[in-house]
Amino acid sequence: MATYKGIQGYSVQKLSSDPTATDAVGQLWYNSTSGKFKIGDAGAGAWASAPSMNTARKQVGNAGADNTNALCFGGQDASGHHGSTEKYDGTSWTEVGNLQEDRRLIDGIGTTNTAALAAGGYDDPGYQQINEQWNGTSWTEVANLQTAKGAGGSAGTSTAGLAFGGVPGSPTASCETWNNTSWTAVNSMNTGRIGLGSAGVTNTAALGFGGNPNTAATEKWDGTCWTTVNGLNSARQYLSGAGTSTAALAFGGTPGTSALTEKYDGTSWTEVADLATARFELGGAGTTNTSALAFGGSTGPTAGLSATEAWSDPVYSVKTVTVS
Amino acid sequence: MANTYCTATNFGKGFFTHEDRNDFYLSGHAGDVWVVGNNAAGVSWINRVTGTAKTKADAQAIVDAKIDEDIVAWNALSAEEKARQSEPVKYTLP
Fold this sequence. Notes:
The complex is a heterodimer. Chain A is an all-beta fold. Chain A is 2% helix and 41% strand. In chain A, the strands form nine sheets. In chain A, strands 1-2-3-32 form a four-stranded mixed beta sheet, with no helix packed on it. A four-stranded antiparallel beta sheet of chain A has the order 4-31-30-29, with no helix packed on it. In chain A, strands 5-6-9-10 form a four-stranded antiparallel beta sheet, with no helix packed on it. By secondary structure, chain B is α+β, with helices and mostly antiparallel strands. Chain B has one domain (3-84). Helices cover 44% and strands 18% of the residues of chain B. A four-stranded antiparallel beta sheet of chain B has the order 2-3-1-4, with helices on both faces. Chain B is elongated and about 45 Å long. Classes of the chains: A mainly beta, B alpha+beta.
Protein backbone atom coordinates (compact mmCIF):
# COMPACT_ATOMS: atom_id res chain seq x y z
CA MET A 1 0.00 0.00 0.00
CA ALA A 2 1.30 3.41 -0.91
CA THR A 3 1.97 5.67 2.06
CA TYR A 4 1.47 9.42 2.32
CA LYS A 5 5.21 9.84 2.88
CA GLY A 6 5.91 7.69 -0.13
CA ILE A 7 3.72 9.90 -2.31
CA GLN A 8 4.48 13.33 -0.85
CA GLY A 9 7.96 12.81 0.56
CA TYR A 10 7.10 13.80 4.14
CA SER A 11 4.88 12.63 6.99
CA VAL A 12 1.89 14.11 8.76
CA GLN A 13 3.05 15.15 12.24
CA LYS A 14 1.71 13.19 15.19
CA LEU A 15 0.77 15.14 18.33
CA SER A 16 -0.71 13.88 21.58
CA SER A 17 -2.73 17.10 22.03
CA ASP A 18 -3.92 19.88 19.77
CA PRO A 19 -1.87 23.09 19.59
CA THR A 20 -3.74 26.32 20.36
CA ALA A 21 -6.01 27.48 17.58
CA THR A 22 -3.81 30.53 16.99
CA ASP A 23 -0.64 28.43 16.67
CA ALA A 24 -2.33 25.80 14.51
CA VAL A 25 -3.20 27.96 11.50
CA GLY A 26 -2.10 26.26 8.29
CA GLN A 27 -1.07 23.06 10.02
CA LEU A 28 -2.25 19.46 9.56
CA TRP A 29 -1.60 16.86 12.27
CA TYR A 30 -2.74 13.51 13.64
CA ASN A 31 -3.99 13.65 17.24
CA SER A 32 -2.80 10.34 18.66
CA THR A 33 -5.04 10.69 21.72
CA SER A 34 -8.32 11.15 19.85
CA GLY A 35 -7.22 9.25 16.75
CA LYS A 36 -8.34 12.11 14.50
CA PHE A 37 -6.67 14.15 11.79
CA LYS A 38 -6.92 17.88 12.52
CA ILE A 39 -6.27 21.17 10.70
CA GLY A 40 -5.87 24.72 11.95
CA ASP A 41 -8.04 27.29 10.23
CA ALA A 42 -8.30 31.07 10.15
CA GLY A 43 -11.92 31.75 9.24
CA ALA A 44 -13.84 34.92 8.53
CA GLY A 45 -14.38 37.48 11.29
CA ALA A 46 -17.44 36.94 13.49
CA TRP A 47 -19.23 38.15 16.62
CA ALA A 48 -19.52 35.83 19.64
CA SER A 49 -21.58 36.27 22.78
CA ALA A 50 -19.73 37.71 25.76
CA PRO A 51 -20.79 38.29 29.38
CA SER A 52 -23.75 40.64 29.72
CA MET A 53 -23.51 43.97 31.53
CA ASN A 54 -24.97 44.25 35.03
CA THR A 55 -27.35 47.02 33.96
CA ALA A 56 -29.24 46.93 30.68
CA ARG A 57 -29.04 50.34 29.03
CA LYS A 58 -28.85 52.34 25.81
CA GLN A 59 -27.31 55.65 24.67
CA VAL A 60 -24.16 54.79 26.60
CA GLY A 61 -20.70 56.34 26.65
CA ASN A 62 -17.84 54.04 25.74
CA ALA A 63 -14.09 53.52 25.73
CA GLY A 64 -11.72 50.59 25.50
CA ALA A 65 -8.96 48.72 23.77
CA ASP A 66 -10.37 45.50 22.30
CA ASN A 67 -12.77 42.62 22.91
CA THR A 68 -11.28 42.04 26.38
CA ASN A 69 -11.02 45.64 27.62
CA ALA A 70 -13.90 48.13 27.69
CA LEU A 71 -15.64 50.78 29.77
CA CYS A 72 -19.37 51.61 29.62
CA PHE A 73 -20.71 54.72 31.36
CA GLY A 74 -23.91 56.68 31.60
CA GLY A 75 -26.86 55.97 29.34
CA GLN A 76 -30.50 55.33 29.99
CA ASP A 77 -32.31 52.40 31.55
CA ALA A 78 -35.93 51.87 32.51
CA SER A 79 -35.53 54.22 35.48
CA GLY A 80 -34.06 57.11 33.51
CA HIS A 81 -30.60 58.62 33.15
CA HIS A 82 -27.75 56.63 34.47
CA GLY A 83 -24.46 57.54 36.07
CA SER A 84 -23.07 54.10 36.70
CA THR A 85 -19.88 52.83 35.10
CA GLU A 86 -19.02 49.24 34.26
CA LYS A 87 -15.56 47.93 33.41
CA TYR A 88 -15.01 44.81 31.26
CA ASP A 89 -11.82 42.78 31.67
CA GLY A 90 -12.49 39.97 29.21
CA THR A 91 -14.11 37.82 31.89
CA SER A 92 -16.89 39.93 33.41
CA TRP A 93 -18.38 43.40 33.76
CA THR A 94 -17.78 45.00 37.15
CA GLU A 95 -19.49 48.08 38.53
CA VAL A 96 -16.96 50.79 39.34
CA GLY A 97 -17.16 54.49 40.22
CA ASN A 98 -20.18 56.48 39.03
CA LEU A 99 -20.04 59.58 36.86
CA GLN A 100 -20.30 62.81 38.83
CA GLU A 101 -23.25 63.82 36.65
CA ASP A 102 -25.79 61.28 35.37
CA ARG A 103 -26.40 61.66 31.65
CA ARG A 104 -26.87 59.84 28.35
CA LEU A 105 -25.72 60.29 24.75
CA ILE A 106 -22.23 61.05 26.06
CA ASP A 107 -19.29 61.41 23.67
CA GLY A 108 -17.05 58.73 25.20
CA ILE A 109 -13.33 58.91 24.49
CA GLY A 110 -10.51 56.52 25.41
CA THR A 111 -8.42 53.61 24.22
CA THR A 112 -8.40 51.67 27.49
CA ASN A 113 -10.74 50.95 30.39
CA THR A 114 -8.34 52.69 32.79
CA ALA A 115 -8.33 56.16 31.20
CA ALA A 116 -11.30 57.82 29.52
CA LEU A 117 -13.21 61.02 28.96
CA ALA A 118 -16.98 61.57 29.19
CA ALA A 119 -17.67 64.71 27.16
CA GLY A 120 -21.07 66.36 27.04
CA GLY A 121 -24.26 64.35 26.89
CA TYR A 122 -27.91 64.93 27.72
CA ASP A 123 -29.44 65.52 31.11
CA ASP A 124 -32.65 67.44 31.70
CA PRO A 125 -33.20 70.15 30.65
CA GLY A 126 -30.78 69.74 27.72
CA TYR A 127 -27.35 68.97 26.34
CA GLN A 128 -24.37 69.63 28.59
CA GLN A 129 -20.84 71.04 28.41
CA ILE A 130 -19.73 68.84 31.30
CA ASN A 131 -16.52 66.91 30.79
CA GLU A 132 -15.30 64.20 33.17
CA GLN A 133 -12.03 62.27 33.18
CA TRP A 134 -11.66 58.63 34.33
CA ASN A 135 -8.42 57.53 36.00
CA GLY A 136 -9.28 53.86 36.37
CA THR A 137 -10.95 54.36 39.72
CA SER A 138 -13.06 57.51 39.72
CA TRP A 139 -14.41 60.33 37.55
CA THR A 140 -13.26 63.93 38.05
CA GLU A 141 -14.80 66.99 36.42
CA VAL A 142 -12.33 68.79 34.19
CA ALA A 143 -12.64 71.71 31.75
CA ASN A 144 -15.97 71.97 29.94
CA LEU A 145 -16.53 71.65 26.22
CA GLN A 146 -16.67 74.98 24.36
CA THR A 147 -20.31 74.26 23.50
CA ALA A 148 -22.88 71.90 24.96
CA LYS A 149 -23.20 68.77 22.82
CA GLY A 150 -23.95 65.07 22.75
CA ALA A 151 -24.79 62.14 20.45
CA GLY A 152 -21.69 62.96 18.45
CA GLY A 153 -18.57 61.18 17.30
CA SER A 154 -15.34 60.95 19.24
CA ALA A 155 -11.76 59.75 18.99
CA GLY A 156 -8.46 59.76 20.85
CA THR A 157 -7.49 59.31 24.46
CA SER A 158 -8.35 60.82 27.82
CA THR A 159 -5.51 63.32 27.40
CA ALA A 160 -5.76 63.99 23.64
CA GLY A 161 -9.35 63.73 22.48
CA LEU A 162 -11.65 64.83 19.70
CA ALA A 163 -15.44 65.40 19.74
CA PHE A 164 -17.31 66.07 16.52
CA GLY A 165 -20.84 66.37 15.18
CA GLY A 166 -23.85 65.82 17.41
CA VAL A 167 -26.46 68.18 18.81
CA PRO A 168 -28.10 70.39 20.20
CA GLY A 169 -30.34 72.10 17.72
CA SER A 170 -30.06 70.99 14.15
CA PRO A 171 -27.28 68.47 13.56
CA THR A 172 -23.97 70.20 14.06
CA ALA A 173 -20.73 69.78 12.15
CA SER A 174 -18.61 71.42 14.83
CA CYS A 175 -15.44 69.79 16.11
CA GLU A 176 -13.41 70.35 19.28
CA THR A 177 -10.03 69.00 20.29
CA TRP A 178 -8.88 68.26 23.89
CA ASN A 179 -5.27 68.66 25.06
CA ASN A 180 -5.77 67.48 28.66
CA THR A 181 -6.26 71.05 29.78
CA SER A 182 -8.95 72.59 27.60
CA TRP A 183 -11.14 72.17 24.53
CA THR A 184 -10.42 74.18 21.37
CA ALA A 185 -12.78 74.60 18.41
CA VAL A 186 -11.18 73.37 15.17
CA ASN A 187 -12.40 72.96 11.58
CA SER A 188 -15.89 71.53 11.28
CA MET A 189 -17.00 68.41 9.45
CA ASN A 190 -18.36 68.90 5.94
CA THR A 191 -21.75 67.45 6.85
CA GLY A 192 -23.51 68.16 10.15
CA ARG A 193 -24.97 65.05 11.76
CA ILE A 194 -25.97 63.40 15.01
CA GLY A 195 -25.82 59.77 16.07
CA LEU A 196 -22.79 59.03 13.94
CA GLY A 197 -20.29 56.23 14.37
CA SER A 198 -16.64 57.02 14.91
CA ALA A 199 -13.14 55.57 15.10
CA GLY A 200 -9.70 56.89 15.97
CA VAL A 201 -7.06 56.45 18.64
CA THR A 202 -5.59 59.96 18.51
CA ASN A 203 -6.99 63.48 18.18
CA THR A 204 -5.09 63.95 14.92
CA ALA A 205 -6.57 61.05 12.91
CA ALA A 206 -10.23 60.05 13.08
CA LEU A 207 -13.14 58.76 11.06
CA GLY A 208 -16.81 59.77 11.31
CA PHE A 209 -19.46 57.72 9.51
CA GLY A 210 -23.23 57.56 9.13
CA GLY A 211 -25.57 59.57 11.33
CA ASN A 212 -28.79 61.53 11.22
CA PRO A 213 -30.11 62.82 8.79
CA ASN A 214 -29.80 59.22 7.67
CA THR A 215 -26.55 59.05 5.76
CA ALA A 216 -23.78 56.73 4.66
CA ALA A 217 -21.32 59.60 4.37
CA THR A 218 -17.87 59.07 5.85
CA GLU A 219 -15.33 61.76 6.67
CA LYS A 220 -11.68 61.48 7.65
CA TRP A 221 -9.90 63.90 10.02
CA ASP A 222 -6.18 64.47 9.45
CA GLY A 223 -5.54 66.75 12.39
CA THR A 224 -6.37 69.87 10.42
CA CYS A 225 -9.44 69.29 8.27
CA TRP A 226 -12.19 66.83 7.41
CA THR A 227 -12.26 65.16 3.97
CA THR A 228 -15.17 63.16 2.56
CA VAL A 229 -14.14 59.60 1.66
CA ASN A 230 -16.05 56.54 0.44
CA GLY A 231 -19.31 56.05 2.35
CA LEU A 232 -20.79 53.08 4.16
CA ASN A 233 -22.64 50.57 2.00
CA SER A 234 -25.78 51.04 4.12
CA ALA A 235 -26.84 54.46 5.41
CA ARG A 236 -27.69 54.36 9.09
CA GLN A 237 -27.57 56.29 12.35
CA TYR A 238 -27.00 55.63 16.05
CA LEU A 239 -24.45 53.00 15.13
CA SER A 240 -21.15 52.35 16.86
CA GLY A 241 -17.56 52.02 15.76
CA ALA A 242 -14.06 50.83 16.58
CA GLY A 243 -10.58 51.07 15.14
CA THR A 244 -8.62 53.84 13.50
CA SER A 245 -9.05 56.27 10.63
CA THR A 246 -7.56 53.70 8.24
CA ALA A 247 -8.85 50.44 9.74
CA ALA A 248 -12.30 50.80 11.23
CA LEU A 249 -15.40 48.79 12.06
CA ALA A 250 -19.01 50.06 11.94
CA PHE A 251 -21.77 48.03 13.57
CA GLY A 252 -25.47 48.21 14.42
CA GLY A 253 -27.67 51.27 13.93
CA THR A 254 -31.12 52.27 12.68
CA PRO A 255 -33.55 52.79 10.68
CA GLY A 256 -35.23 49.65 11.82
CA THR A 257 -32.85 47.69 13.97
CA SER A 258 -29.62 46.86 12.21
CA ALA A 259 -27.15 44.03 12.78
CA LEU A 260 -24.97 45.13 9.89
CA THR A 261 -21.22 45.24 10.34
CA GLU A 262 -18.88 46.93 7.88
CA LYS A 263 -15.11 46.99 7.81
CA TYR A 264 -13.03 49.94 6.50
CA ASP A 265 -9.59 49.32 5.03
CA GLY A 266 -8.54 52.93 4.54
CA THR A 267 -10.20 53.13 1.14
CA SER A 268 -13.63 51.52 1.20
CA TRP A 269 -16.20 49.78 3.42
CA THR A 270 -16.95 46.07 3.00
CA GLU A 271 -19.87 44.29 4.62
CA VAL A 272 -18.78 41.49 6.94
CA ALA A 273 -20.58 39.22 9.43
CA ASP A 274 -23.61 40.64 11.26
CA LEU A 275 -24.09 41.08 14.98
CA ALA A 276 -26.27 38.26 16.32
CA THR A 277 -28.57 40.78 18.01
CA ALA A 278 -29.47 43.80 15.90
CA ARG A 279 -29.43 47.02 17.89
CA PHE A 280 -28.92 50.78 17.85
CA GLU A 281 -27.72 53.37 20.40
CA LEU A 282 -25.11 50.80 21.46
CA GLY A 283 -21.65 51.12 22.90
CA GLY A 284 -18.51 50.00 21.12
CA ALA A 285 -14.85 49.60 22.04
CA GLY A 286 -11.69 48.71 20.20
CA THR A 287 -8.59 50.31 18.77
CA THR A 288 -8.46 48.01 15.72
CA ASN A 289 -10.98 46.54 13.29
CA THR A 290 -9.89 43.01 14.23
CA SER A 291 -10.88 42.95 17.91
CA ALA A 292 -13.85 44.92 19.23
CA LEU A 293 -16.73 44.81 21.66
CA ALA A 294 -20.41 45.78 21.18
CA PHE A 295 -22.51 46.28 24.30
CA GLY A 296 -25.88 47.56 25.42
CA GLY A 297 -28.07 49.51 23.03
CA SER A 298 -31.68 49.23 22.08
CA THR A 299 -34.02 47.21 19.90
CA GLY A 300 -36.88 49.68 20.36
CA PRO A 301 -38.20 52.34 22.70
CA THR A 302 -39.13 50.01 25.54
CA ALA A 303 -35.85 48.82 26.97
CA GLY A 304 -32.10 48.86 26.85
CA LEU A 305 -29.98 45.77 26.37
CA SER A 306 -27.30 44.21 28.54
CA ALA A 307 -26.12 41.79 25.84
CA THR A 308 -22.48 41.99 24.79
CA GLU A 309 -20.82 40.62 21.65
CA ALA A 310 -17.11 40.23 20.94
CA TRP A 311 -15.68 40.68 17.44
CA SER A 312 -12.64 38.68 16.31
CA ASP A 313 -11.16 38.71 12.83
CA PRO A 314 -9.97 36.21 11.83
CA VAL A 315 -11.57 33.44 13.84
CA TYR A 316 -8.96 30.80 14.63
CA SER A 317 -10.24 27.25 15.03
CA VAL A 318 -9.15 23.63 15.04
CA LYS A 319 -11.23 21.39 12.79
CA THR A 320 -11.40 17.61 12.53
CA VAL A 321 -10.74 16.21 9.08
CA THR A 322 -13.17 13.60 7.82
CA VAL A 323 -11.29 10.64 6.36
CA SER A 324 -12.46 7.40 4.82
CA MET B 1 -36.09 24.53 5.07
CA ALA B 2 -33.24 26.98 5.47
CA ASN B 3 -33.84 27.98 9.08
CA THR B 4 -35.26 26.63 12.28
CA TYR B 5 -36.60 28.58 15.29
CA CYS B 6 -36.31 28.48 19.05
CA THR B 7 -36.44 30.56 22.19
CA ALA B 8 -33.38 30.60 24.43
CA THR B 9 -31.93 32.94 27.02
CA ASN B 10 -28.59 34.50 26.15
CA PHE B 11 -26.41 33.64 29.16
CA GLY B 12 -23.41 35.54 27.89
CA LYS B 13 -19.98 34.06 27.14
CA GLY B 14 -20.25 30.72 25.38
CA PHE B 15 -23.90 31.15 24.42
CA PHE B 16 -22.70 31.39 20.85
CA THR B 17 -19.06 31.26 19.84
CA HIS B 18 -17.12 32.69 16.91
CA GLU B 19 -16.97 29.19 15.46
CA ASP B 20 -20.75 28.82 15.81
CA ARG B 21 -21.23 32.02 13.80
CA ASN B 22 -19.13 30.64 10.99
CA ASP B 23 -20.82 27.21 11.11
CA PHE B 24 -24.47 28.24 10.87
CA TYR B 25 -26.75 31.25 10.46
CA LEU B 26 -27.86 32.79 13.77
CA SER B 27 -29.84 35.93 14.56
CA GLY B 28 -31.49 37.05 17.77
CA HIS B 29 -34.86 38.77 17.96
CA ALA B 30 -37.21 40.26 20.53
CA GLY B 31 -38.67 37.83 23.04
CA ASP B 32 -35.51 35.70 23.14
CA VAL B 33 -36.39 34.30 19.71
CA TRP B 34 -33.46 32.88 17.73
CA VAL B 35 -33.41 32.05 14.06
CA VAL B 36 -30.96 29.22 13.52
CA GLY B 37 -29.53 27.76 10.34
CA ASN B 38 -31.05 24.35 9.81
CA ASN B 39 -27.93 22.22 9.62
CA ALA B 40 -26.24 19.79 12.00
CA ALA B 41 -24.26 22.54 13.74
CA GLY B 42 -27.37 24.69 14.20
CA VAL B 43 -29.44 21.83 15.63
CA SER B 44 -26.55 20.92 17.94
CA TRP B 45 -26.42 24.55 19.15
CA ILE B 46 -30.13 24.56 20.05
CA ASN B 47 -29.57 21.46 22.18
CA ARG B 48 -26.45 22.97 23.75
CA VAL B 49 -28.27 26.12 24.91
CA THR B 50 -31.40 24.15 25.85
CA GLY B 51 -33.48 26.10 23.38
CA THR B 52 -37.20 25.49 23.08
CA ALA B 53 -38.13 24.67 19.50
CA LYS B 54 -40.77 26.86 17.90
CA THR B 55 -42.56 26.79 14.59
CA LYS B 56 -41.89 29.80 12.41
CA ALA B 57 -45.46 30.99 13.05
CA ASP B 58 -45.04 30.75 16.81
CA ALA B 59 -41.68 32.52 16.71
CA GLN B 60 -43.15 35.24 14.51
CA ALA B 61 -46.06 35.71 16.92
CA ILE B 62 -43.66 36.24 19.85
CA VAL B 63 -41.67 38.84 17.92
CA ASP B 64 -44.81 40.58 16.67
CA ALA B 65 -46.18 40.88 20.21
CA LYS B 66 -42.94 42.52 21.37
CA ILE B 67 -43.01 44.94 18.45
CA ASP B 68 -46.62 45.83 19.28
CA GLU B 69 -45.39 46.77 22.76
CA ASP B 70 -42.62 48.84 21.18
CA ILE B 71 -45.10 50.68 18.95
CA VAL B 72 -47.21 51.65 21.96
CA ALA B 73 -44.07 52.84 23.76
CA TRP B 74 -42.86 54.75 20.68
CA ASN B 75 -46.17 56.62 20.42
CA ALA B 76 -45.65 57.84 23.98
CA LEU B 77 -42.16 59.23 23.31
CA SER B 78 -41.37 62.94 23.20
CA ALA B 79 -40.81 64.62 19.84
CA GLU B 80 -37.07 64.76 20.60
CA GLU B 81 -36.97 61.03 21.20
CA LYS B 82 -39.13 60.23 18.16
CA ALA B 83 -36.72 62.20 16.00
CA ARG B 84 -33.91 59.94 17.15
CA GLN B 85 -35.51 56.61 16.33
CA SER B 86 -37.90 55.46 13.66
CA GLU B 87 -41.25 53.92 14.57
CA PRO B 88 -40.88 50.18 15.14
CA VAL B 89 -42.16 48.16 12.19
CA LYS B 90 -43.12 44.53 12.05
CA TYR B 91 -40.96 42.37 9.83
CA THR B 92 -40.92 38.78 8.70
CA LEU B 93 -38.39 36.48 10.31
CA PRO B 94 -35.91 35.01 7.84
